[in-house]
Specification:
single chain; binds iron/sulfur cluster; binds cobalamin; alpha/beta; six-stranded parallel β-sheet
């Protein structure tokens, strides 16, 4: 029997950040999972992705659908100002509408979001949303709202959030994301997203994936994971896992299920170099299943920086993994973190290296995000507290070179590296998938070839620092010693939880 429709709920993903304008645009799978859970509770749910739709579409949706609750996803810190304004708009158009924010970055700055909202935001939901979002909707208007796990309201904080016990529950409601042909990554055009595992057991100092999930690591059952992949209409799939295929038996089991169901797609995933070395056979097997594109977080070309990032890997292992990936025949992108202390020589070293290897080399700027360990060590040196600059494409720490020179070097490095991979030469290199996308009428990839100079240029990046700042990040609290577990983690690892911080079992 169908459940009665209880409430009209609109879930909104904010617009794309700088690099997403160029290389990729992917479906908001976290929001789709929350949507699945909210729909299962009987509500009427719509998803609006502003990576694809416009601000005018948002307003039209408020007017036409007249949601009784709106939920925003703040996975990216740089989206904070936009989401605060969207929340204020919802409040002014529909004063009775309940407004909530969830998502990765939002979870680390809940109080700050409520302050910026000045009454426009009713609550921030920290941590995973599947179990708690329906409970929040059920508790609207009830003072018990602020006692729910992970919930922060102007009236108080609930206990620590609880983890979803089973990844097989609430598979993404992909049917709610419209204009799906706009989702792509490089030549994988169009491209859907899927999640096979969640969390990461490592603890790199620049990353907040492990602090969000409390260093937990969970797997979908091979049957459910394969069934979900089989249900996807697109020919390409981006696997959103933080580190794919840590446990080889899980990867093999999913592969076998896919073979049994005759699922043939092309895949993109992200993993670590040591995982690739250890599970080489598994990756070779997945190459046969359609794994095409792989992202490896190299992060640095020298031992000292790897130690600083606490990557727990050596340069030797990194280069060995690249060799293996080449032998298997993957298209590989690697990331290098540019330190704000770099001078021309260091950029030059990266450029020289990048030109000698076949991999796509991407540069990101070291950024202390709330939720990372470097937030506690570096954030007092911040040169800007403009959320919009926290997107790993801008420098928010003092640069050794004048800022404009730093950006000039960054863009020059990015440009040289992209010359290898963007442009018509790349179509030749990526051959069949690129042509096939075009034949299907998919033009996202080809459009990207022309956009590079417009999107990535030093003037744009430098000028971004001159914009007036309406919402400023809260200055970091001085931390004398190591941060306490509840300051560092969103989902606090069980062994570090104080009895008082343990939430009631969700669900
Ligand atoms: C996959 C991924 C991407 C993908 C796709 C993301 C997308 N379509 O949104 C791509 C490759 C595009 C990407 C790009 C970037 N990414 Co990214 N990405 C991730 C990654 C690995 C997983 C995200 C994911 O899909 N998780 C699975 C889903 C199910 O979880 P979820 O989205 O978090 O949703 C859950 C909760 O957050 C919550 N929730 C979410 N929304 C809502 C809303 C409501 C109302 C509620 C109640 C709950 C809720 O419930 C969901 C279900 O449990 C995360 C790391 C991480 N583990 O979170 C980094 C991460 C989010 N990315 C990061 C960064 C820096 C970037 C880039 C800026 C990098 C770059 N080089 O440019 C770009 C910017 C992209 C953009 N927005 O335009 C950082 C964010 C840092 C920050 N604090 O802002 C992260 C945390 C990685 C890190 N190492 O620190 N990314
Ligand atoms: S960078 Fe990768 S390996 Fe390191 S903690 Fe983050 S997700 Fe895990």
């Amino acid at each position: 029997m169908l459940k009665p429709v209880l409430m009209r709920v609109l879930l909104v993903h904010p617009s794309a950040l700088m690099y997403s304008e160029l290389y990729l645009r992917l479906e908001p799978i976290g929001l789709e999972r929350v949507a699945a859970a909210v729909r299962a509770a009987g509500h009427e749910v719509r998803v609006l992705d502003l990576q694809i739709f416009s601000r005018a579409d948002y307003r039209a949706e408020l007017d036409a659908f007249r949601p009784q609750a709106v939920g925003f996803s703040v996975n990216y810190l740089a989206n904070v100002p936009e989401v605060i304004d969207l929340a204020k708009e919802a409040r002014s158009v529909l004063p009775e509408c309940f407004v909530m924010i969830g998502g990765h970055s939002g979870s680390f700055i809940a109080d700050e979001l409520l302050e910026h909202g000045r009454g426009a935001i009713d609550c921030v939901v920290r941590g995973e949303g599947e179990i708690i979002a329906p409970r929040v909707l059920e508790a609207i208007g009830d003072p018990r709202l602020s006692t729910l796990p992970g919930v922060v309201t102007p009236d108080g904080h609930g206990p620590a959030p609880t983890l979803l016990d089973d990844l097989d529950k609430f598979l993404p409601a992909r049917d709610l994301a419209h204009n799906r042909h706009k989702y792509f990554i490089g030549v994988l055009d169009p491209c859907a997203s899927a999640e096979l595992t969640r969390g990461c057991p490592w603890d790199c100092s620049f990353c907040s994936a492990w602090t969000f999930y409390g260093r937990s690591y969970r797997k979908a059952s091979p049957e459910k994971a394969a069934a979900d992949l089989a249900s996807i209409h697109e020919p390409n799939v981006f696997l959103v896992d933080d580190v794919a295929f840590i446990h080889p038996e899980h990867g093999f089991a999913i592969g076998q299920e896919l073979e049994r169901r005759r699922v043939k797609k092309q895949y993109y995933l992200e993993t670590r170099c040591d995982v690739l070395i250890k599970n080489r056979d598994l990756f070779a097997y997945w190459k046969r299943l359609g794994l095409f594109y792989m992202f490896l977080g190299l992060e640095a070309l020298d031992e000292e920086s790897l130690k600083l990032h606490r990557k727990r890997i050596t340069t030797g292992e990194n280069f060995e993994a690249l060799e293996i990936a080449r032998e298997i025949g993957f298209t590989v992108a690697v990331n290098i973190i540019a330190d704000c202390g770099w001078d021309e020589r260091q950029f030059e070293i990266v450029r020289e290296w990048a030109m000698t290897v076949p991999e796509i080399v991407n540069l990101t700027v070291a950024t202390p995000y709330p939720g990372t360990e470097i937030w506690f060590t570096e954030s007092r040196r911040l040169t800007s507290r403009d959320y919009r600059l926290f997107d790993v494409a801008h420098a928010v720490l003092p640069t050794r070179m004048p800022l404009d020179k730093f950006y000039a070097e960054l863009v020059k490095t990015q440009e040289i590296m992209n010359r290898k991979h963007l442009g018509w030469g790349a179509i030749q290199r990526y051959g069949f998938p690129a042509v096939r996308a075009l034949m299907r009428g998919q033009t996202n990839y080809v459009r990207m070839l022309w956009k590079f100079a417009k999107v990535v240029n030093e003037n744009r990046q430098y000028n971004d620092h001159q914009r007036p700042v309406v919402y400023e990040m809260k200055p970091p609290r001085p931390i004398a010693a190591k941060p306490k577990p509840d300051e560092l983690f969103v989902h606090i690892p069980a062994k570090l939880q104080k009895p008082a911080a343990t939430g009631t079992a969700a669900g």
